[in-house]
Amino acid sequence: MNEFSIVCRLLGTLFQRDPNDPILAPIIKMVGEGKLSQLWPLEQDELFNTLKNSVKDLAIVEADYQSLFGGNAPAVSIYAHDYEEIKEDDVRQFLIARGMPVTDSSTDSFGALLLAASWLEDNSAEDEVLAQIQLFDEYLLPWAGAFLGKVEAHATSGFYRTLAAIARGALSALREELSDDEKSEDTEAE
């Protein structure tokens, strides 16, 4: 797994799962101990210091998660189709066409799309960069800014406000990396 995949996987998992989910326990522990920032490939140390301080009371983070994304009336929708004319079935077919195994769970949530980007990085065929660019440009970036803005506006804990800021910077860096990869592939093809 390379840095692109790690960033997508960590952010996807943090947005996709409840903070009390056992899968998140080691990640939350690393955040609280300041160890995740040491492994993070992007220059976001100040944000990670803020994130570290925000996980001291996991009950507050859990309540914030439920208010933001849980229940029948979440403050913020995590689904692309609620922001743009992106159909969940289009995302699903895009991923299936690239060989990604999908479940019955929605494929157009913010976290699921980041996890899909990680999977594409780790498992795609030779057109991986083009597939990742398509995922970012058609299914993730058109609504990510609105989603992250709503998270920042509605979050009551520093954890999700900071996580949104980290994700915003990471998405920009990841998309730039994809552009660089595409240019180097074009140069190699010439």
Structure description:
The protein contains nine helices and no strands. The protein is mainly α. 69% of the residues lie in helices and 0% in strands. The longest helix has 32 residues, at 158-189. Helix 1 (3-16) packs antiparallel against helix 9.
User: Could you tell me the strand content as a percent range?
Assistant: under 5%
- DSSP helix fraction: 55-70%
**Which structural class do the helices and strands define?**
mainly alpha
- Gap between N and C termini: 28 Å
**Which spans of ≥5 residues are poorly predicted at pLDDT below 50?**
none
Oligomer: single chain
Largest sheet: none
Helical segment count: 9
Q: Report the average pLDDT across residues.
A: 91
Count of β-strands: 0
Calculate Rg over CA atoms.
Answer: 16 Å
> How are helices and strands ordered from N to C?
HHHHHHHHH
Q: Given the C-alpha coordinates, what overall shape results?
A: globular
Sequence-ordered SSE layout with sheet pairings:
Layout: H1 3-16, H2 25-32, H3 36-39, H4 45-54, H5 58-69, H6 88-97, H7 110-123, H8 128-154, H9 158-189
Short description:
With 190 residues, this protein is mostly helical.
Supply the key terms:
single chain; 190 residues; mainly alpha; 69% helix
